[in-house]
Amino acid sequence: MAHVFDDKKRITTRIRRIKGQLEAVERSLEEQQDCFAILQTLSACRGGMNGLMGELIEGHIRGHVMRSPNDPKSAQDRSAEALIKLLKTYWK
2-90: which CATH number, 1.20.58.1000, 2.40.330.10, 3.40.720.10, 3.90.190.20? Predict the structure, then answer.
């Protein structure tokens, strides 16, 4: 999990942003705000979570599956790159 520790500041920043969005959802519910606005904020939370998950999975693949992530020439590394590309399109 060295890849997580290398990117700790960026990951922590993303987590704090997601927490802020969730707190906004909670406040909106407590204040009985408009449904649409609450759902929109919740959708932003979901997007943030998906982005974080994608980033962590990509780091995991590059750190634990690929042999040469900086110079992917082997069939395994090319397949891992293809998987990363596929996952990025899935989470958009």
Answer: 1.20.58.1000
DSSP summary character for residue 74? S
Interval 20-62: pLDDT, tens: 999 999 999 999 999 999 999 999 999 999 999 988 899 899 9
Residue 72, classed as helix, strand or coil, is coil
Say how far apart CA 80 and CA 17 lie, in whole Å.
29
Tell me the C-alpha distance between 59 and 7, whole Å.
9
Q: DSSP class of residue 73?
A: -
Q: Give the integer Cα–Cα distance in Å for 19 and 14.
A: 9
Q: Give the tokens for residue 29.
A: 């519910």
**Does the pLDDT at position 3 exceed 60?**
yes
Sole residue written with tokens 């969005």: 21
Which two structure tokens, joined as six digits, stand for 80? 């891992």
